[in-house]
Amino acid sequence: MRSIRREELNRFLIIRMDHVGDVLLTTPVLKALRFAFPKSYLAVLVRSSSRPMMINNPYVDHLFVYTPEWWSRPGERPFTRKETERVFGLLRRARFDLAFDFRGEARTVILTVWAGAKYRVGFDYEGTGGLDIALSHGHYVVRQGRHQVEINLDVVRAIGVDLNVRDRAPELFLSSKERSFAQSFLRGLGREPRGPVVGLHPGAGHPSKVWTVEGYAEVGNWLTRTKNATVIITGEAFEARLVRAIAERISPPPVVAVGRTNLRQLAALIEGYDLLVAPDCGPAHIAAALKTPLVAIFGGVNEIERWRPYGEGHIIIHHDLECAPCFNYNCRRGYRCLREITPAEVMAAAEAQLGRRGF
Asked: What tens digit of pLDDT does each residue of 290-320 get?
């Protein structure tokens, strides 16, 4: 394997074809590269649904968007063949010296080739279906017991970059307009918060990560009746049924914000919360990036230490069952890891977080 000389590197492409939280956890890489190569050209390739996580990022020179047919979420339109050809034509014309793939599977590894990068760097581990040979430099990383942020940074270290960045926390850069939206939203509720403002975001990328309707409802009732909280329930349009089922069980009624914000406006709302209660999902990682107090409810499908919201001060509720982590999105045990988490556990965690803010 030919070594990569630093003087050869000036134009970088970061490929992260993944969910909102995964993209956010890649932002420390951008900061590290910008500090190591301050005059370089740094571009990012993401899916349309994850694009909002990169808007206004000062380390990014250009943002490319590509939503493949093999990976699109509800409401996310896959690119046509013509659109795909256009995107990769633009990428090839950009003449990248090096492309990173941070997903590490066959379909994303091959994108580094399609982009025409001279050097192609990524993870060298099982799951690439043998296509890690498409990488010019595949790097083995130790994943067990380590956070994904550190795993991502390992790939940058592997090309000889000395990481002098002390703050490795994921970052999200909101605009004043987005923050003004959040302030106006709260003022427009028609109620003056006398207690904390608490967000419930019950939805996640898969049912294997979603806690119970009854659990969220009990926590919501406790918040409104005991803490005099203003409770805001958020979710994507396809999660409206789930949100409605929770909201109709809470009294006084919570604020239902489904369909009333885009993703960055939601992030601005989260920044203004006194607490967010959420599962393993993008908004939980957004809360961590924005330093909003968080209670995160995790099932057993993924490794907790690897995928927990990054940083200190978050409370993660998780039952370490004998079958976890299972990496199985179709549980035959009825999602015991989630069902056995009690409202009392979540309320105790919320009490602790709110207590730190004087509520």
From this structure: 999 999 999 877 888 999 999 999 999 999 8
The domain total for the chain is 2
With a CB cutoff of 8 Å and minimum separation 6, the contacts of 353 are: 275, 293, 294, 295, 315
168 domain-assigned: no
| pLDDT per residue as tens digits for the range 333-359 | 767 878 899 999 999 999 999 999 999
Has residue 75 been placed in a domain? Answer: yes
Highest mean pLDDT among 3-7, 29-33, 68-72: 29-33
In a domain, 165, yes or no: no
Let me know the angle formed at the C-alpha of 331 by 325 and 335, rounded to the nearest 5 degrees: 80
127 confidence band (pLDDT: 50, 70, 90): very low
The CATH number that applies at residue 291 is 3.40.50.2000
Check residues 109 and 286 and name the one with the higher pLDDT. Answer: 286
How far from each other are the two terminal CA atoms of the chain, in whole angstroms?
58
Domain that holds residue 201: 177-355
Task: Assess whether 112 and 198 both reside in one domain.
Answer: no
Same domain, 241 and 304: yes
